Amino acid sequence: MADSPPRSSTPAPDSTPAPDSSPAPDSSPAPDSSPAPDSSPEGTPLVTFGRYAGPATLILSSLADGPKHGYALTKDIEQFASVRLAPGTLYEALSRLESQGFIKALPSEDRRRPYQLTAAGAQALRAHLADQRRVADVGLRRLSRGWGPA
Description:
Elements: H1 53-63, H2 70-81, H3 87-99, E1 103-105, E2 115-117, H4 119-147
Antiparallel strand pairs: 1-2
Helix pairs in contact: 1-2
């Protein structure tokens, strides 16, 4: 079949090789020689957000274009990322970002509360996006070797 992935000699996660059997030689491409992305929390401040790193990245990216309140953030993120953040996810991430000093709330004349990116937030976003670019580059290189160019 032309669309099937390359076969791996690695046993399935739920199978265990017999004690006296040796594993088959690996026929996969040589490991990528690129340096591994820094996975330490010090390397990328957004790593500490765990499952909120995605929403945090989207929010910080939106605020890099200027201050916005919650609804404007949601609409901007939908426009540039085709992702709709649920209100609970949005406001939880805003709270975490504000507590870390990555964003700050601005004074409001009405019930809408605008947020602004801080210098620390811009630095964290830049570092996180650079790490994500390295990961994406490795993934794309590996796909092109085993699955052909995009």
